Amino acid sequence: MTDCDLCGVGIPTVVPVRVFKPKYEHSYPHGMWQGLCEGCLNAGKKTHDAQAESPSCGTAGKCDFCSAIAQLYDVTISRPSFSKGAEEDTVQLCKKCLVSINESHEAWEKQKAEDAHAHH
User: Cα Rg for the chain, rounded, in angstroms?
Assistant: First the structure.
């Protein structure tokens, strides 16, 4: 079992996303791998696509995924809750993280399609 790095849900497998953390740029110049559940991956993809269609300047702050100080965009995720089962929450991600999530989403969908095709 592993946990999603955004919402914290414990699942058997997560989707790997390459994240460039400024704090570790000298140790990991090619980025670090973090894992997202499919729900958070899809939410990030949705925000990436919406931002690409009608660019907004976002708000300045610290990214909830890579901790970079940058322009941030709101991503609505579903966070597990003991009392309600799940509740909506908003995290703020930078453009770099949204691009990485988009790339991982495309790779994940391609992998799922190949796996489905291989089983038939």
Answer: 15
